[in-house]
Amino acid sequence: MSYSDNVRGIYQQQLNGIKEAGLFKQERYIHSPQTADIEVEFPTGASLKKVINMCANNYLGLSSHPEVIKAAHEGLDNRGYGMSSVRFICGTQDIHLQLEAQVTEFLGTEDTILFPSCMDANAGVFEAILTKDDVMIADRLVHASIIDGMRLCSAMQDSFKHSNMKHLEEKLQLHSDKRVKIVITDGVFSMDGDTAKLDEIAALCEKYDAMIFVDDSHASGFIGKTGRGTHEKCGVVGKIDVITTTFGKALGGASGGCVSGRRELVEMCRQKARPYLFSNTIAPVVVSGVVKVLEILSQSTERRDKLEQNTEYWRKGLTEAGFILKAGDTPIVPVMLFNAKLSQDISKDLYQEGVYAIGFFFPVVPQGQARIRTQISAGHEKHHLDKALDAFVKVGKKHDILGKTKQEIIEMSGA
Ligand SMILES: *Cc1c(COP(=O)(O)O)cnc(C)c1O
């Protein structure tokens, strides 16, 4: 079949449907490195505007850190641009092993295997370690990449209500006959910024003889006293059987991910995980950058401490101004607006005021839970946060939502 007018029409119709539903994703073009101040072209063709970035996953401000860039340059000079191979043929350099050892040390696990991305880690890990005799019990709000990884695995799938320990316990009892049981959760959930109850989950897993899997992509590098992640915050370092995480967020923000955990499970991934076996090795430039990131983070907690202080300052400022926030203590700070259109209007107005923050609404978040998700970075200085707060207050006043209750905002915005 050729790409006939008829076939083209099928896709044009679907794309129009997405637009009419208001779900068309329009990208904004950034003409500068990823830092607190960025230069953005929006709408397409408009002249560049300098804005404060309040929605990057650049939690530690390391995405364009001079030392990381220097290390990446050295990696490029010393180990070349690309490896043109997967790991097990001729794609493993000494620096890949160095990085794997460093991640193991940083996370307090037994061993680590690198993947091209955390999406790939999640896509490969379950199939590599589980069979049809096993069961996967996942929190209902886990990341899309985990859901995809579970789909690729023949083990039975089940779920428990978000962070509901009673429900999890019922499911563990229900599946007591399975060969291997694994409980699956995100460490920090990306839309609400809440933290998994890993201490309670670990206790249940011990009681019912189950393994624990944590995706710590929104935590590695900054959650916990020394930034090791959610397991550190919850006091269960060494008790998590599988941790997956990304290098594409706090840990330099380029790309790459890993599976870190029990020695045998990591080795099973090396032998069997398809994204590891059939996709290219991480480029030396990126490996060298992440090696430097972990070196910086192992020497001092200065950056995660600053992030914590920035987050407190930001949450306090928005709360005192009269915004409704999702409660929590992570640098993911959702400003609740409930109404989808209101979230889009406020995002546009903020942009005019020099603040880049994106509105999320259904189906990314539940119906009636539209919000602007702000994300704080150690790369933000106080003047950034103050300027962004001023912009939020100005726009909040314009829409008359400051100090209003959820019900009042919903009624006003005609939801
Ligand atoms: C971002 C994210 C991923 C994907 O990471 P990549 O390395 O970009 O593929 C996976 N899991 C969670 C929880 C994430 O937030």
Brief sketch in words of this structure:
With 415 residues, this protein is α/β, with parallel strands linked by helices.
Structure description:
- With 415 residues, this protein is of the alpha/beta class.
- The chain folds into two domains: 27-56 and 301-413, Aspartate Aminotransferase, domain 1; 66-299, Aspartate Aminotransferase, domain 2, CATH 3.40.640.10.
- It has 16 helices and 14 strands.
- The protein has helices spanning 5-20, 66-79, 87-90, 94-107, 118-129, 144-151, 165-174, 198-208, 230-233, 263-272, 274-278, 284-299, 302-321, 340-352, 382-398, 406-412, and strands at residues 29-30, 37-41, 49-53, 111-115, 135-139, 156-160, 181-186, 211-215, 242-246, 257-261, 332-338, 355-356, 359-360, 370-375.
- Strands 4-10-9-8-7-5-6 form a seven-stranded mixed beta sheet, sandwiched between helices. The chain has a four-stranded mixed beta sheet with strand order 1-2-3-12. A three-stranded antiparallel beta sheet has the order 11-14-13.
- A hairpin with a 6-residue loop joins strand 1 and strand 2.
- The chain is globular and about 60 Å long.
- The termini are far apart.
- The mean pLDDT is 97.
- The structure holds pyridoxal-5'-phosphate.
- Pyridoxal-5'-phosphate binds at residues 117-119, 122, 143, 145, 186, 190, 215, 217-218, 246, 248, 257.
